[in-house]
Amino acid sequence: MNAASDPGPALLEVRGLSKSFGTLRALQEVDFTLRAGQIHALLGENGAGKSTLIKAVTGVFPRDAGIVRLSGSEVALGSAKAAVDAGIATVYQEVNLLLNLSVAQNLYLGRQPTRFGLVREAEMRRNATALLAEFDLHIDVAEPLGTYSIAVQHITAIARAVDQSARVLILDEPTASLDRHEVEILFAVMRKLATRGIGVVFVTHFLDQVYEICDRITVLRNGRLIGERKTAELPRIELIRMMLGRELAETTSERAAAQVRTAGELCARFEGYGKAGYVAPFDLALRRGEVVGLAGLLGSGRTETARLVFGDERADSGSAAVDGKPVRLQSPRDAIAHGFGYCPEERKTEGIIADLTVRENIVLALQAKRGLAKPLSRSEQDEIAMRFIRLLDIRPPEPERPIGLLSGGNQQKVVLARWLATAPRVLVLDEPTRGIDVGAHAEIIRLIRELCDDGLALLVISCELDEIVTYSDRVIVLRDRAHVDELEGEAIDISNILAAIAASSTIGAEVGQA
Amino acid sequence: MRRLPPVAITAIVFVVGFALCTAQFPNFASTRVAANLLTDNAFLGIVATGMTFVIISGGIDLSVGSVIGFTTVFVALAIERLGVPPLVAFAAILLLCAAFGAAMGAIIHVFDMPPFIVTLAGMFLARGASFLMSTESTPISAPLYSTVSDFALRLPGGGRLTAIALIMLAVVAAGAVLLHFTRFGANVYALGGSRATTALMGIPVGSMTVRIYMLSSVLAGLAGIVFSFYTAAGYSLSAVGVELDSIAAVVIGGTLLTGGQGTVVGTLLGVLIQGLIQTYINFDGTLSSWWTKIVTGILLFAFIALQQAMLDIARRAGPRKTGVLKS
Ligand SMILES: Nc1ncnc2c1ncn2[C@@H]1O[C@H](COP(=O)(O)OP(=O)(O)OP(=O)(O)O)[C@@H](O)[C@H]1O
Ligand SMILES: [Mg+2]
Questions:
Q1: I want to staple A179 with a disulfide (CB 3.0 to 4.6 A). Which of A12, A298, A411, A496 is the partner?
Q2: Do A81 and B316 touch (CB under 8 A)?
Q3: Helix axis angle, B242-252 relative to B64-80, nearest 10°?
Q4: Which of B313, B309, B311, B307 is nearest to A314 (CA)?
Q5: CATH topology for A10-96+158-245?
Q6: Matching PANTHER family, A to Z (chain A) (predicted)?
């Protein structure tokens, strides 16, 4: 933690900012002050207006009222470019990257080193390699960004912004798909920038991270400013109360005592299942009423396991059986036909259909499962949509709103609802609580437990070990694309999982194929 | 192993095609045939270079054929009727084309309209305007025209590399440099990746769009000038359907019709493949020249299917690469 005691001069001041989308008042007279050398958390529930505030400041959205001052003088930023030119670099929540360009081009687009008008490719690559090395990332920067994992893509976006941040760096949920180690590297970089006098705005739903790195906290709720506090003087309970406007029964991270559920009958079984160069062959049994957690570092093979199980990737060894009968899972379609559901990690790109409404997005998978011959009636659709909007507290609670206009976290909830609506027998959830606020987080964990009690078999992937520990009946630990350990019952706790992950600690291995 | 880039496949198709022609007609493999291939397709190579930029940026330009037609009529009338010196007429038409392209780009950006619609309107507009100016073919007899058509670099083996072929090669080379080695070129690819993201990354999307369509129209104008050299006339019905030939050349050249990927060299190969088919038909002497269209259609279909297959493979392609993270 930096010395939060002597605040630098005000760097970015926002006064009386308001913004409406039609009748929806997304921001009402919000004030925000960022000082030089400060790491400032911008917090609030999903849909509170954090991303809107950022975009209204950087000029992506025009604002209805209010002023922005940069180092004391008023600025009128009209576009993302104007903001960058003024020294404000931003990683927006819908991460700004071009997968068809090389990593180096993504880092330097619009500001490539040139000579006589020609881009100096070699120099650009050298700079890119050096820049990423600061993030402990050592990759071939000439390759298209799309060939790298989501984590690498995010780090690239962050590195670009960090490199451009002359005065202010704004990060909207940058850590959502990063691993512990990568988060630490990011934090080290943020601290370094802060000591150089750059102001950092940090949006996140991970409260641990807020307490670890931020000097100050500004909380928004329903588009209004609730308050600004010093982190050191704001107890966690109080912070949550500010965000939610109510108390939150803090039950989530306790492992339920009565969790010794009697595992139900075997639902799906995989033996020697694997794919060369992808995931080493593994055995996996999924039983009714049981939650199996997959733990491991990013790139350890968690998502890969899920995709094999769901048939999104074809296995080249081993066998699968559902209810004791051998089956072939060649495609997601096969898997869905056998009652599988999969809520992917990359909900933003793989999950939502931006132009469809919330209702249409929710019933999508259910309709696909029933087949086009049996359309859901409109009233059935409305009922299902409203049930999940209520259950997951999707805001605003309007089923007919195009999903693209929802806040990031609320979009995630809709995709989750889509798979829950299919009432699958085996449900794979990849990072179900990503980008979801503290209030809804507890709801989702409660929901996972309930689903299990209803006899669903669940396979859950999460970076948050306390979350895994909370709901799992069994935890499979992965390392270097292989299942290396399995913990059960009493043995499930954070330190055991960490020990299993670290057991060989040759984490440096390059796991990708070329 | 790296996957074969689409442009390599285009090159292989061209080489194999050339070899097959040579096998059938031994005197096919001569500098004469090669040089004629370049001359006959010079105007197509020039428009297709501009089209490559437009398509990579995620757009389309249907107006280019009409712009060529308009240019030939404009140039012919200016020189023959009004007695304007040819070079002045060329400068005037290129400026006019630049304004026309800029206007289309501005409309596409400001009103957020599909390029397909805007350039379709541009296509009717330019063709209509050329009919208004003249409905019949106007021969051009300015001395510059005979000087240019007499000029040629003699190649060993009897081939004549004409002025218009040289102009086309220069345009392709300049286009390749612009697309692959400048910031402008990188922005073109970025736009084809995603317009919204490109804007968030601080690239001036509006002025890029204007400049891309301006480039395409100016090159169409230049192609029109070259076409007028080639035919020594201006005619309002010339170059009908050339927009489609150039789109076909671009796609056969390995550029993704949805944008974001492609090369200028590929486009040149795409143009030459179409020319090769035409030349084969001329050699054969019995085939209808419409076979060019049929074979082009088949190739186009094959390439689009191939691209789709490659996209699918890329999507399913094993693990995403993970960086080396040392702890
Ligand atoms: N382009 C848009 N058009 C209409 N409404 C929008 C638009 N963008 C956001 N909204 C609405 O504005 C409100 C604030 O959204 P915002 O994205 O700022 O939330 P957030 O605090 O960033 O939430 P999250 O934590 O989920 O990312 C939400 O109710 C959202 O539905
Ligand atoms: Mg947001």
A1: A298
A2: no
A3: 130
A4: B313
A5: Rossmann fold (3.40.50)
A6: CARBOHYDRATE TRANSPORT ATP-BINDING PROTEIN MG119-RELATED, GALACTOFURANOSE TRANSPORTER ATP-BINDING PROTEIN YTFR
Asked if B202 and A80 come within 8 Å (Cβ–Cβ), the reply is yes
Is 0.90 exceeded by the ipTM?
no
Q: Which residue has the tokens 């270079």?
A: B49
For the CA of A173, the nearest atom of ligand 1: 27
Per-residue model confidence as pLDDT tens digits over B71-95 = 999 999 999 999 999 999 999 999 9
In the chain, the amino acid numbered A162 is V
Ligand 1 site residues (CB inside 6 A) read: A 21, 24, 26, 44, 46-52, 93, 396, 405-410
Token pair listed for A190: 């943020």
Yes or no: say if A435 and A173 are a contact pair by the CB < 8 Å rule.
Answer: yes
Nearest CB to A278 within list B189, B197, B318: B318
DSSP per residue over A466-500, as a string?
A: HHHHHH-SEEEEEETTEEEEEEEGGG-SHHHHHHH
Helix/strand/coil for A264? coil
3-state secondary structure of A404: helix
Number of domains in chain B: 1
Domain coordinates in residue numbering, chain A: 10-96+158-245, 264-339+425-514, 347-423
Is residue B318 included in any domain, yes or no? no
Q: What's the CATH code of the domain at B284? A: 1.10.3470
CATH code of the domain made up of A264-339+425-514 = 3.40.50.300
The CA angle A139-A140-A141, to the nearest 5 degrees, is 100
DSSP per residue, B33-82: HHHHHHHHTHHHHHHHHHHHHHHHTT---TTHHHHHHHHHHHHHHHHHTS
Residues around ion ligand 2, judged by CB within 5 A, are: A 51, 93, 407-408
Chain A CB contacts of B186 below 8 Å:
101, 105, 109, 112, 119
Tokens at residue B260, please? 């974001």
Determine whether the interchain pair B322/A149 forms a contact, defined as Cβ–Cβ distance below 8 Å.
yes
CA A204 to chain centre: 10
B259: left (phi over 0), alpha (psi -120 to 50) or beta: left
| Atom of ligand 1 at shortest range from CA of A47 | 19
Number of CB atoms found within 10 A of residue A377's CB: 8
CA–CA separation, B56 vs B41, rounded Å? Answer: 22
| Domain of residue B267, residue span | 6-313
Q: What is the pTM of this model?
A: 0.82
Confirm whether B161 is domain-assigned. Answer: yes
Of A81, A110, A151, the CB nearest to B183: A110
- Residue B69 burial (CB count, 10 A): 27
User: Is residue B211, in this structure, part of any structural domain at all?
Assistant: yes
Nearest to B192 among A100, A105, A299 (CB): A100
- The pLDDT tens digits of the residues spanning B240-284 come to 999 999 999 999 999 998 899 999 999 999 999 999 988 888 888
